[in-house]
Amino acid sequence: MISIDYSGKIVLITGGGRGIGLGIAKAFAEAGATLIITYTSTNPAATAQAIEKQYGVKVHVYYCPAEKSDLVDEMVEEVAAEVGEIDVVIANAGVSLWRDAIDMTDAELLNIMQINLFAPMYLTRAVVRQWLKVPVSLHSSSSDRGLRDQKLHLGKKILFVSSISGIVAMTPQKQAAYNASKAGLTMLAKSLAGEWAGYGITVNAISPGYIQTDMIANPPPGEGEEWVKIWKSMTPVDRWGTAEDVANHIVLLCSDRAGSFMTGSDIVVDGGYTIF
Ligand SMILES: NC(=O)c1ccc[n+]([C@@H]2O[C@H](COP(=O)([O-])OP(=O)(O)OC[C@H]3O[C@@H](n4cnc5c(N)ncnc54)[C@H](O)[C@@H]3O)[C@@H](O)[C@H]2O)c1
């Protein structure tokens, strides 16, 4: 029997308080992991307590806007000091934007790129600096190279929650910036996988199709009803995905059972949307 056990492992999930992130948090908790959940707007303390009670694991909650690299550096340092060394990083936090390209403001474009694309870079840069024992601070003038020149077998796992929007441009809604941010994120996973393979760190992406969360819950009145019909008609399994549909793959992918040979991959979990 294959069993997956995360006892003694620390898993960090950005935006783990709701939606797909919450599904991921619960799936790791069920497998025995200690969780770090980051949040911005709503403190998920009550949700964290409920997970602790249901699964008998520790859940630590940290405020951390994903796009603020200085706060990300601080949070990663605090986690190491207060909880311990992170084993698995899930960069899940993301935002969508349905907007015609010609109506998009600079601020909107920057915001979506910062949260969806730059933030996973900030987070994994901070964590990998810590794993390699090089100074975390961006402003450090230290020449300490830590372990970066060594061949290592750290056995650490990084997973980006990307999207099939990074593979095909979703229709009929206009979301060029979101699509581009996710295409960039999937390529970032590949690129970092190449850079960090020699340290025993795997970096993979997962690309969900339409998953029933707040992100797709409120298409604009009127035309939104038509969108939903089209989204469903383009999904061969004829249902929305659930957070669990995504989370269970992630738990396997980041486990010791998955080994270290799969890296730089993008796992598509989309009910068949990208078949045709
Ligand atoms: N729902 C879908 O159909 C779908 C499909 C493909 C990919 N995704 C991706 O899955 C991930 C989770 O989305 P979801 O569907 O659960 O949506 P959601 O809106 O329910 O959750 C998004 C999470 O990201 C967090 N977040 C947003 N901005 C943040 C910031 N600046 N700093 C830190 N955290 C922030 C939110 O607090 C929330 O926890 C996203 O990256 C999204 O792009 C979703």
UniProtKB/TrEMBL annotation:
<protein>
    <recommendedName>
        <fullName>Gluconate 5-dehydrogenase</fullName>
    </recommendedName>
</protein>
<dbReference type="InterPro" id="IPR002347">
    <property type="entry name" value="SDR_fam"/>
</dbReference>
<dbReference type="InterPro" id="IPR020904">
    <property type="entry name" value="Sc_DH/Rdtase_CS"/>
</dbReference>
<keyword id="KW-0521">NADP</keyword>
<dbReference type="GO" id="GO:0016616">
    <property type="term" value="F:oxidoreductase activity, acting on the CH-OH group of donors, NAD or NADP as acceptor"/>
</dbReference>
<keyword id="KW-0560">Oxidoreductase</keyword>
<comment type="similarity">
    <text>Belongs to the short-chain dehydrogenases/reductases (SDR) family.</text>
</comment>
<dbReference type="InterPro" id="IPR036291">
    <property type="entry name" value="NAD(P)-bd_dom_sf"/>
</dbReference>
<dbReference type="Pfam" id="PF13561">
    <property type="entry name" value="adh_short_C2"/>
</dbReference>
<dbReference type="GO" id="GO:0050664">
    <property type="term" value="F:oxidoreductase activity, acting on NAD(P)H, oxygen as acceptor"/>
</dbReference>
